[in-house]
Structure formats: C-alpha cells, structure tokens
Amino acid sequence: LFSTIGKILYVANNPSDQYSDKVMILKEEYLTTAIEYLESQIPDEALFLPEKNFSASPDEKGENKIFYGAPGTGKSHRIDSLVNAINPDNVIRTVFHSETQQSDFIGCLKPYVKGKRVKYEFQPGPFSEIYKRALNKPGEEFYLVIEEINRAPAAAAFGEVFQLLDRDSNGKGVYDISAVDPMHEQWLENEISGWNKKIRMPGNLTLYATMNSSDQGVFPLDTAFKRRWTF
C-alpha cells in the first residue's frame, strides 16, 4: 500500500527527484494533485450502463447476477441505476431474511376472510408474481430484485426454482419444473395465458441480487447455487 500510494504521488506530480519506493512525498499540494489525478481517472458511470431499449428489444437476454460487497458500497444503488428506466410494474423487489422460506418466495395457500367465512387461496410470492407477468408480456423486460440474498438459506428458499437458474445463450431456462403443489398449478393455469403445465425461466426475466460479503452472521451460498450466478 505504501509503495502504491508513493507511485501515485510521483506520477501525479512528476517531481524532479528520482523515484524511490522507500520515500513518500507528503506535501499538501502533492496530495491535492494526486487526488485530482485519481478522480480524473474514474470514468463516467454512464460508460458502464448498457444502453437498453426497455420497450421490446429482441436482443435482451435474461441473466442471474449478484452484486456483492461491503455495506454502503452502492450495491442497491447500482441495481437502481439499471432498472430505474423500467416500468415499475415490470420490477418486483423482495428482501431475504433468516426466516425466509420457499413458501414466502414462491407462494403458498393462505387464509382470507370473505364475509363471515374464512377461505383459502394460493397467494403468490415475488417469484411467481414476476414469472406470471413475464410470460404474459413476452415483448417486455422484467426484473426480480432480491436484496440480501445471503441472509436466508437461499438454496432452500428457491427450492425447485433452483433448477430454473440454468440458462442457455439466449437467457432462456434450460430445464423446467412442475408447480410446487396443485393450488400453485391451478393459480398458474388461471393467471398465465396458454400455460403449458411446466415452469421454465423465460428469456425476458432477469434476476438481480445483492450480497453482503463482509457480514459473518449470514448464510453461506453453496457452490452449486453460486455457479448459476454471475458475480
């Protein structure tokens, strides 16, 4: 670190003295010049943002991507910069925590009161809801954003959906799965036009997630799960 800072100070100020990795010039004006030099080397953030036509581009390919880093390093902000031009109806956000289960993520049978009677209906989780929207509008891009993915046992929360994370070169799922239960299957059949009885990841659905890389009080991601994501 000492050597690196010394080199930056030397390159930014180009003093007449010969460079030495054992000497660091700590003059105030040298430090100021070095800071200005470093700032000038940071590209405009827009250079890193893909120019997307979010309406109905056939070139869009779904992906699974995790943004990881220490707290406060801009993970959520980075995702916001990628999806803030999207129709809000095409983005669903959820936050994983230690009690998150597959029934929370996919959906489950839940009671509700109708008049004086208690009835049960399948209530979709964030994945089922965004999956439904993506299949019903294949010409648009959809995003599921999972904050703090490693604060839950992620592989268990995904359950069978784990199998869907394998994608081909076009971003479409390689494998398919069945509905988690008969009520889930009935809900999919009612909500998705032309549903073919199998769940497969559509190419217009992208999964973004954030992961805290420095917190020790979280669940580790197993190798098989991590392999299906870009970090």
Report on the architecture of this protein:
With 231 residues, the chain is of the alpha/beta class. It has eight helices and eight strands; from the N terminus they run H-H-E-H-E-H-E-E-H-E-H-E-H-E-E-H. It has helices at residues 2-13, 28-41, 75-83, 102-105, 126-136, 154-158, 182-191, 223-226; strands spanning 64-69, 91-95, 107-114, 117-124, 142-147, 176-177, 199-200, 205-212. A hairpin with a 2-residue loop joins strand 3 (107-114) and strand 4 (117-124). Helix 1 packs across helix 2 (28-41). The model is unreliable at 46-59 (pLDDT under 50).
Nearest-angstrom radius of gyration? 24 Å
- Helical/strand content category: alpha/beta
Describe the main β-sheet briefly: 4 strands, parallel
Helix count from the secondary structure assignment: 8
Please write the string of helix (H) and strand (E) elements.
HHEHEHEEHEHEHEEH
Q: In what range is the share of β-strand residues?
A: 15-25%
